[in-house]
Specification:
three-stranded antiparallel beta sheet; Arc Repressor Mutant, subunit A; 204 residues; 7 strands; alpha+beta; single chain; 22% strand; two-stranded antiparallel ribbon
Length: 204
Amino acid sequence: MAQCMMATMLVQKLDGVESACYTDVELMTGTSVEVREETQMKWEDLPDQQCSMARTSAVLGDRWTLVILSDLFLGVRRFEDFQKRLGISRTTLANRLKHLEEHGVLTQRQYEERPARYEYRLTEKGLGLYPAILCLLDWGDEHYSDAAGAPILRRHKTCGHDFHAVIHCSECGEPVNPRDVEARKRPEDSRFPEVKRGPVTYAG
C-alpha cells in the first residue's frame, strides 16, 4: 500500500507555556506518530538560564535601560532631569528606574526634606557596569558617530588624556580580542543545572 507522509507544525498552549509541537511523520497506514516538543523560551525565562548574558539581558536588555545608565554615568541623578533629557513618559521612566533599583543597580537617596525628594545613585553593583558601558560607547562612537566625531569625550583624570576602553587579560595584562579567547563550559557539578548553551565550533 502506498504511504502518504505529512509534515505539520502545531502551536499550542500547554499549562500556560507556548510550545511548538512538530509532528515529524504521519503514516496514513495507522503507524503511530512521533511528536517532538520544543518549549519556546520567553523573556521572563531568561533569569533561569545557566547563561550570564541571558541573566544580564533580563536586567539590562530593555530598549531604554542602557540609555538611562549612560546618563547616570554622566552625572544625572534626578527624575525630572532624566525625563527632560530623554523625552520619555513618566510611567516608562519610573518603571525602568524601579526595575534597576529592584536588581540592586540603583538606590534612592533623599536630597530634600520638605517636600521629600529623592535622587538615584549607582550602587557598587551598578558602578561595576562602567567597563561594559564604556565598551558599548566606544563601539557606537566608531560605527555611528557623524563627521563631527564622538558626541562625548572622556578624559582620564590621572593622566589628563582623552581615552577609549581597552580590554586586557587579568592574568598577563595583554590586550584581548575575540580571536585570542577560547571559551569552555564550567566543570559539571551535580548540585547545579547543566550549562546547555556552551561554545560552538564549526569544522573548517
